[in-house]
Structures are given as C-alpha cells and as structure tokens.
Write a structure and sequence with these properties.
alpha/beta, Beta-Lactamase, 3 domains, 9 helices
Length: 380
Amino acid sequence: MKSRREHILLVENNASISDRIARQSLRPLGYQVDIVLHASAALQEINRIQPDLIIANLNLPGLSGKDLLVAVQSQGYEIPFIVLAEETKEGDILQAFRLGAADFLSWPAQETEIVTTVERVLKNVRAQQERQALVNQLSRLNQELEKKINDLTTLINAGKAITALTDPKQLIETALENCVFLSSADRGLVILRAERGRAYTLRAALHCPAEIKPMLNKTWDDGVSSLVAESGEPLSIHGEPLKPFILSKYGNSALILPLKVKHEVLGMFILLKKQAQPFEPHAQSLAEAVVDYTGIALMNLQLIRTVEKRLLQSYPEQQNQKLKRQLLSILEKAQTAQTALSELLAEEGALLTARQRQWILNVRDQLLQIQEALSKANTS
C-alpha cells in the first residue's frame, strides 16, 4: 500500500477547526499538514513547500478563500483545492466550484468526513499523476523508438554506401563519419596497420584539433589501442582510467573498436567524447555494425583487386592461345591450297601453258614457305 506522504496546506484562522482537521484527522494518518492563518501567508507558503493539497476557509480575514483560489490558479499552480464553508453558504460553495475547487467540506464536519473528502481528492490526484507518468513514459518510449528506427535507417544506408565504395580512403572516411554520428561522439580517428610490421598509421580524423592534421599518414601509438589489437575486442574507457593515455588530450571518454578482416585486426576506429561518460550500449552497437560493414567492404576490395590482378596476368596467355588458333587455321588453309596446286600440276592432260605451269609452281613454293613459317610460329 502506498505510504501517505502528501503535503497539505491548511489555511484557517480558527484554532479549533485547525486542530480538528490537522491534529485529530490528518496527521495521525501520516499526512504532513502546515497551517497558516490568512491568504497572504498562504501564497508565500505555497511557493516554499509546493503542497499537494490546499484546504482553505472561504471566510478568511482579508483575502477570502475564493480570492486565494483565484490567485493560486492565476500563478499557474495545479494544486487541488478544498473549500471549507458553513452549510448555509451554498452559494459561495457553488461559486468556488465554478472557480475550480476540487471539493468542499461543510462545517461542522466529523473526522471521517474530513478524511473521506481529502482521500477522495488525493486519490484523483494520484490517478492523474499516474496517468501523466504513463503518458510521459509512453512519449519517452516513442521518442526512443523513433530514434532507434532513424538510427537503423541511417545504419542501413551507411552499410549500402560503404560497401558500394571502391576507393579505400573514401571508404574509411565515410565509415568514420557514420560512426561518429551514430555513436554521438564528438570526434573520431582511424588507424590502420602498416603493410609490414605491427605499427599503426593514422589514416583519418574527423572533428579533431588542428594539431592532429600533421600526424596523418604517420605512425600512431596512443598506448591503449595496442591493447585492443591484442584482444580483438572493443574497449570503452572514460574518466580517470583514460588520463594516463594520449587520447585524454582529445576527449574524456573513448570507445576503441577493432577493424577486422577474416578475424585479423587491420586497424581501429577510435571514437571520443568530451564528457567523461561511457558510450551508451545502443550507440556502441551501431558503431560496431558500421565497423563490421567497413571490414566487409575492405575484404570485397581485396577480392576485387585479386581478381583484377589474375585477369591481367592471364590476359597475355589468353591472347597467345587465340593467336595460335588463328595461325593453325591459316596453316590448315595453306596446306589445303598447296595440296590442290600439287594435284593440279600432277594431273595428266592438264591444259596448262609453260608460263601458267611456272606461275603455279611459284605460288606453290610460296605457300610452302608460308606453311613452314606458320608451323614454326605455332610451336614456339
């Protein structure tokens, strides 16, 4: 059962009425009850204690209870108001309801009536607060859902863009830009392992101080990224543990993500935030996905380069085979022609003049020379 901790402000100048309501009825049930004697003091007390409920006599000296009700509402307070009036003051009670009173107590009233009226009003207040809390929670969850949908859309688009790029430099820069955005980082770096050895080179930087620019394409050692390279696992570090390392010059929170191709660490994405707060798990997951896309894209580029290299290596051989096939075809045709001429010369009764016979002999000899040359070219 919910503990009754509501704070009630009672505005009443009659001590016996105040005693009946506060000491005898409400305080024994755990309510905090503050008492003031007139409306002007009540306005000051409202600013100080921010009560959950106001009970005020309509017939106060100076400013009346109705005046207090109007003043409270005009100042923007949403505090439920119970008016206290004699049974003969029905007109005043109705007017108070029109002005926004939540309920009323006819005096004299018994303790049970006082408690019942207060409980009824506060029950409505609690229900309204719970509804508002649910509305706020729903609104917050809706905003979080919208953000996650937007993040996933951005991630999908980033994956498409990254895997479509064929220039490694542009690929790395695009991936870094998406990592910084999706992780809500303030700046980012990318270091890649040199082709030979275990050293790393700074290849890309985003939103970094001017002093970083001269370091591009030079060896990078921040003292902590090497630990990620050894483990192959992401590392989130912030606050005091980060201060001994160079990265603390550029941020108070760092997220280092290994870039892997076929389980081999080729480099690291280093994301930095100015505030010493860890990266949220959702943001880290999105950044890791971008880095995974990058690894896939780099592996695809390697495969493309390998295929292109093999094609270039095999091209001369393919051309040589094609030329041999062409030479063989010409050789076969030359052999056919040479055979036909030989048969023509050997045919008895062929009506050829001496001059024609000599021409045919010359053509046959030339075909024979071509045939010998083609045979040598085909076997070379």
